[in-house]
């Protein structure tokens, strides 16, 4: 699925790295607990989260993720967007809640993360 | 790398502000990419160092990180002068955490940090003395 399709399915705004939005991704995970993302996520691409702090961007960067979706109308700070832009991570902001956002992407064909 | 002498980098980890935790790990990841190492090795090192850096900020008020890149492995030494770990075996147990509640609200403190470091590294040595501090030495083979 292209990241532009993710934005469309979630009614999301693109907050940075719009030039990368036509790239394909294949799997996603949803979590507000970065500890668990670091421990359980393996074949990473998209992170859906309602947690808003710079550690979300750094966690995604360490995991080589390509896209972060902030759900529940959470808007990251300019500092966070700058960190994501520097790392080449597409940032989306959706008004949907986590359950619906994950459901739409799952229905749309994104696979869950592999769990070790 | 043809040169046998390891490349070495030193970082101070500021422990005052949780929002800046991880800056050293981001920097190390950039350096390792510039060197042109295997991306999976870089990912493993990055995650292990980030976990250790977060621990250092949560528990020890910061510390120091030394990174050494030799032809066959990347070694990280993370040293702090915090409270130390009283029971290392217990600290290695998945789900065991002594992080305060405010850290959990920031998305950390699930008790996965040290077990995760072990999972992503080829070698891990934890030396700790209560009241003195902790030194974590870890390496990832290239």
Q: What features would you describe in this structure?
A:
The complex is a heterodimer of chains A (116) and B (142). Helix content of chain A is 37%, strand content 19%. Chain A is α/β, with parallel strands linked by helices. Chain A has a single domain (3-110), classed as 3-Layer(aba) Sandwich (Udp-n-acetylmuramoylalanyl-d-glutamate--2,6- Diaminopimelate Ligase, Chain: A, domain 1), CATH 3.40.1390.20. Chain A has a 6-stranded mixed beta sheet with strand order 1-5-4-3-2-6, with helices on both faces. In chain A, helix 3 (54-62) packs parallel to helix 4. Chain A is globular and about 30 Å long. Chain B has 142 residues and is of the alpha+beta class. Chain B has a single domain, classed as Histidine kinase-like ATPase, C-terminal domain (Heat Shock Protein 90). Helices cover 36% and strands 28% of the residues of chain B. Chain B has helices at residues 23-35, 39-60, 88-91, 101-104, 113-120; strands spanning 7-14, 62-69, 73-80, 123-129, 133-141. In chain B, strands 1-2-3-5-4 form a 5-stranded antiparallel beta sheet, with helices on one face. In chain B, a hairpin with a 3-residue loop joins strand 2 (62-69) and strand 3 (73-80). Chain B starts with 6 loop residues before the first strand and ends with a strand. Chain A binds chain B through residues 32-36, 38-39, 51, 53-56, 58-59, 61-64, 87, 116, and chain B through 18-22, 25-26, 29, 39, 43, 46-47, 50-51, 54, 94, 106-113, 115-116, 119.
């Amino acid at each position: 699925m292209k990241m532009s399709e993710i934005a469309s399915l979630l009614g999301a705004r693109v907050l940075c790295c719009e030039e990368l939005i036509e790239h394909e991704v294949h799997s996603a995970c949803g979590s507000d607990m970065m500890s668990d993302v670091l421990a359980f996520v393996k074949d990473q691409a998209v992170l859906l989260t309602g947690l808003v702090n710079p550690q979300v961007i750094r966690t995604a960067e360490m995991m080589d993720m390509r896209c972060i979706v902030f759900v529940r109308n959470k808007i990251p700070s300019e500092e966070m967007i700058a960190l994501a832009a520097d790392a080449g991570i597409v940032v989306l902001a959706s008004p949907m809640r986590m359950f619906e956002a994950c459901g739409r992407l799952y229905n749309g064909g994104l696979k869950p993360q592999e769990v070790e | 790398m043809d040169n046998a002498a390891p490349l070495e980098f030193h970082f101070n980890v500021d422990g005052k502000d949780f929002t800046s935790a991880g800056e050293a790990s981001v920097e190390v990841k950039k350096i390792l990419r510039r060197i042109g190492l295997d991306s999976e090795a870089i990912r493993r090192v990055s995650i292990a160092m980030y976990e250790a850096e977060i621990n250092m900020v949560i528990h020890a008020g910061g510390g120091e990180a030394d990174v050494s890149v030799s032809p066959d492995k990347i070694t990280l030494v993370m040293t702090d002068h915090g409270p130390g770990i009283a029971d290392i075996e217990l600290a290695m147990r998945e789900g065991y955490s002594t992080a305060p509640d405010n850290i959990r609200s920031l998305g950390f403190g699930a008790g996965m940090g040290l077990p995760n470091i072990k999972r992503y590294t080829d070698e891990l040595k934890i030396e700790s003395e209560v009241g003195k501090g902790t030194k974590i030495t870890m390496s990832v083979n290239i």
